[in-house]
TrEMBL record:
It catalyses: [(1->4)-alpha-D-glucosyl](n) + phosphate = [(1->4)-alpha-D-glucosyl](n-1) + alpha-D-glucose 1-phosphate. It comes from Lactobacillus kefiranofaciens. One of its GO terms (molecular function) is pyridoxal phosphate binding. The modification N6-(pyridoxal phosphate)lysine is found at K645. Pfam families: Phosphorylase (PF00343). This is Alpha-1,4 glucan phosphorylase. Its EC number is 2.4.1.1.
Length: 797
């Protein structure tokens, strides 16, 4: 539905009047946000309804993306953009003396995820709707999103992120679509009507209530649904929960998002959360299949339904689908297994060992007795199917139940027809190292699907000026057909275009500088190099290596060795229980304090650690970046996606040959990226030979020694203890992240960056090449590959 300016103004006035009894002139920004989002709802509601009718009518296969995390950020501007209302609304608001950005800033960031995995899930939702596929999200309606990060005396402090407090204007609660999820008790199998039927004794049910969030496609008229489940007490059981405290215990199930992206302690609540959204999701899928699509043959399920499990958190979908098929629909085990494997597919997002989920058998038996029985049976049959065919050690290494644990990755792989990694190097490592034995058993299941990003958000929303420049140089078509961005290369020698790219970057940097001033009180020079590292704080991502570079620059400046002006900008949350990561934050903050307040270096170096990195903050930082830091220990970063967002905005990448950096390097060519560090073979050599001796390096390299020593010699006295922790970690024999091994090579790369910075024309040309080639990482293309190779989807007519 399109809208004219005048129509929009009228609608907005009406909403303000009916919701708040105010007129435009007297409305607060919060009221304007609420009214504006309601006008938008009216705009897409018909499409949402029609999409559902069309889905049922055409009966095309649908994918359900099961993810314990979704990180959509804010939705006002992306809904405006995707609905095709952006320009009209911006200009109408201007007529009224209002600014869209001010109003949009009132929307809480929907941070129902930790990092890359959650953001990818949200990107896929947008891309499915924007390219014409029916794709549904299935997740948890957390009351509290990822914690709000504050710094107090340089330390990270975590505050609750009460994003729902002001109401989520987009969601619709659909009580009539609720389902019950059962926990606890005991299960006996009894013969009934010729069928082994489970009889449940005890335990309790929780009502799963869906909150549907619309996913508006970009100019497609399609509005898909992201369904997030909330926990309630079933009306029939209210009597068992007489006090508010009793109730809270149940409802706490969906209270908090686990603030950890690659390691966490096995907590019962987490296990409950996993089963809760998996069971609710599958039950609602089968209800739709039988009731709405009126299908009665479960054997046809794979023709209509694909269930994708985003990492192992939803891996219980394998057992739960078996339970539903066998227990509820009375399908023979073998048949049910075939159906399950055809329906389910799995993506792995990390090779970090501590992220490999396993659950204690006793815990699982107590909480989910029937699921544990089913998993045991899947495991038993798996072992039988391989006995005598492969070495016993292979069976032991790959079976689902071993050493008292359920191995979730094994369940996911054995129960899926497709297992994919998220960048070629990552997939290769899965095949040859991490999941080698599985790859030998099921080579046909393994495939790569390189990650992508929502270019629309990172260009059209976050960087409207650069988007306009693209319109002028390559034509507006790039907005729907990102391959057209490659045409920007025709302007490689066009002085006018290069000048415009520079001007836009400078404007974006000025804007960020203002934000930095406002939030930290620190003045930064917008003409300096803006050097950006934004991602979760993790040892393997090596914010520490950046820190060492900062210290080295500082020493140089103190010693009269000149460098171009630089502002280093960090954004990163540390998992609350990850003390090393929190120590890194403290040290960076104290190093920043010393440097930012040292008049003797004349403001040549500034270090800014912005609080509370989230999608909203990313939208401010990314358009203003000159340098994109992608400096993980090679082999450890599965893909990375901030690398893609930053290149799209014309930042030049300094990177190890890790994750998707490899693909970025290939796309832009060696001249347009700064590569350094150990390659994967060198890294594995160290790991296999156990002969990494950082202390020898330190003792034989004066610069390295001075730099590292600064952590313990009193230079940054307010972080003496934490500095010592970092110091010790770097020098530890066989230190896993090989920080010092890459130090020298990183300095060389940074030196090259400085040399290049002096030649602004060639710098901007490199930026131009990066912008052009970012089209390769459009999530629309990624999703198209999933749709074709894994899910077997067809677009809606
Ligand atoms: C991340 C990976 O670290 C990152 O390299 C990748 O780009 C992203 O997934 C999307 O594929 N992994 C996680 O966020 C994560 O939580 C633990 O992994 C399960």
């Amino acid at each position: 539905m399109q809208i004219t300016k005048e129509e929009f103004k009228k609608e907005l006035e009406q909403k303000l009047d009916s919701q708040f009894a105010v007129d435009v002139e007297h409305a607060s920004l919060g009221e304007l946000y609420s009214a504006l989002s309601n006008v938008l709802r009216d705009g897409y509601a018909p499409n949402w309804r029609e999409t559902r009718i069309k889905e049922a009518h055409e009966g095309k296969k649908q994918v359900y993306y099961f993810s314990i995390e979704f990180l959509p950020g804010t939705l006002l501007r992306s809904n405006l953009l995707n609905l095709g209302w952006m320009d009209t609304v911006k200009s109408a608001l201007k007529d009224l003396g209002l600014n869209l950005d001010d109003i949009a800033a009132k929307e809480p960031d929907m941070a129902l995820g930790n990092g890359g995995l959650g953001r990818l899930a949200a990107a896929f939702m947008d891309s499915l709707a924007s390219t014409g596929y029916v794709g549904n999200g299935n997740g948890i309606h957390y009351k509290y999103g990822l914690f709000k990060q504050k710094f107090v005396n340089g330390y990270q402090v975590e505050l609750p992120n009460d994003w729902l407090q002001k109401h989520n204007h987009w969601e619709v609660m659909r009580d009539n679509k609720s389902v019950l999820v059962h926990f606890g008790g005991q299960v006996n199998l009894v013969q009934k009507d010729n069928w082994m039927t489970p009889e449940y004794n005890g335990g309790y049910s929780i009502k799963a209530v869906p909150y549907d969030i619309p996913v508006v496609g970009y100019h497609t008229g399609i509005v898909n649904t992201m369904r997030l489940w909330d926990a309630e007490i079933p009306e029939s059981e209210e009597i068992n929960y007489p006090t508010i405290d009793d109730r809270r215990k149940v409802e706490d199930l969906t209270s908090i998002l686990y603030p950890d992206d690659s390691s966490y302690s096995g907590r019962l609540l987490r296990l409950k959360q996993e089963y809760f959204f998996v069971s609710a999701g599958l039950q609602s899928i089968l209800r739709y299949y039988t009731k709405d699509l009126k299908q009665n043959d479960m054997h046809n399920l794979p023709k209509y339904v694909a269930v994708h499990i985003n990492d192992t958190h939803p891996a219980m979908a394998v057992a739960e689908l078996m339970r539903l098929l066998v227990d509820e629909y009375h399908i023979d085990w073998d048949e049910a297994w075939k159906i399950t494997v055809q329906v389910i597919s799995y993506t792995n997002h990390t090779i970090m060992a501590e992220a490999m989920e396993k659950w204690d058998i006793n815990m699982m038996t107590q909480l989910l007795p029937r699921i544990m029985q089913i998993i045991t049976e899947i495991d038993r049959r798996y072992v039988i199917s391989l006995t005598g065919k492969v070495a016993e050690s292979v069976i032991n290494d790959t079976r689902i139940v071993n050493n008292g644990n359920v191995q979730m990755a094994h369940l996911a792989i054995i129960g899926s027809h497709s297992v994919n990694g998220v960048a070629p190097l990552h997939t290769h490592l899965l095949e040859t190292e991490v999941l080698k034995e599985f790859y030998e058993l099921y080579p046909e299941r393994f495939n790569n699907k390189t990650n992508g990003i929502t270019l629309r958000r990172w260009l059209q929303i976050a960087n409207p000026k650069l988007s306009k420049l693209l319109d002028q140089t390559v034509g507006r078509d790039w907005r729907t057909d990102s391959a057209k961005m490659l045409l920007l290369q025709d302007s490689y020698k066009n002085a006018k275009v290069l000048k415009q790219i520079n001007e836009i970057k400078l404007e974006n940097k000025e804007k960020l500088a203002k934000f930095i001033k406002k939030t930290t009180g620190i003045t930064v020079d917008p003409t300096a190099i803006f050097d950006v590292q934004i991602k979760r704080l993790h040892a393997y991502k090596r914010q520490t290596l950046k820190l060492l570079h900062i210290i080295k620059l500082y020493h140089d400046l103190k010693n009269g060795i000149d460098h171009p002006k630089r502002v280093v900008i960090f954004g990163a949350k540390a998992a609350p229980s990850y003390t090393y990561a929190k120590d890194v934050i403290k040290v960076i903050n104290e190093v920043a304090n010393v440097i930012n307040n040292d008049a003797s270096i004349h403001g040549k170096l500034k270090v800014i650690f912005l609080e509370n990195y989230d999608v909203t903050l990313a939208e401010k930082i990314i358009p203003a970046a000159d340098i994109s830091e992608q400096i993980s220990t090679t082999t450890k970063e599965a893909s990375g996606t901030s690398n893609m967002k930053l290149m799209a905005n014309g930042a030049l990448t300094v990177a190890t040959m890790d994750g998707a950096n490899v693909d970025i390097a290939k796309a832009v060519g060696q001249d347009n990226i700064f590569i350094f560090g150990l390659n994967k073979d060198q890294v594995y050599d160290y790991y296999n030979k156990h002969d990494y001796k950082p202390r020898d390096m330190y003792n034989s390299d004066q610069v390295m020694k001075e730099t590292v020593d600064a952590l313990i010699d009193g230079s940054f006295s307010k972080a003496a203890n934490e500095g010592r922790v970092l110091y010790d970690s770097f020098l530890q024999e066989n230190e896993e992240f090989l920080v010092l091994a890459d130090f020298e090579s990183y300095l060389q790369a940074q030196k090259k960056i400085e040399e290049n910075w002096h030649d602004q024309r060639s710098w901007t040309q490199k930026a131009l090449v990066n912008i052009a080639h970012s089209e390769e990482f459009n999530a629309d293309n990624t999703v198209a590959r999933y749709a074709k190779d894994i899910w077997g989807l067809k677009k809606l007519n």
